[in-house]
Amino acid sequence: MENRDDKLIALIGLLAASLIGIVVIFTTTWLADIRRPSSDAFEVQTCTMPPAEPAAQPAEASPTP
Question: Rounded CA gap, 5 and 9, in Å?
Fold first, then answer.
């Protein structure tokens, strides 16, 4: 009977340890996500992208008479 109690206590300890581990991982992930500012909160780069090159677009063919 004592062997069964030891296995039950070990199983409860294992489940409790895994639950604590999951809570710690969830909490650290959640805190890391909260501390990161959103991308639209402030403008880091104020320069604009250069316009696309006209050569990159296909040229229109002129109709031949």
Answer: 6
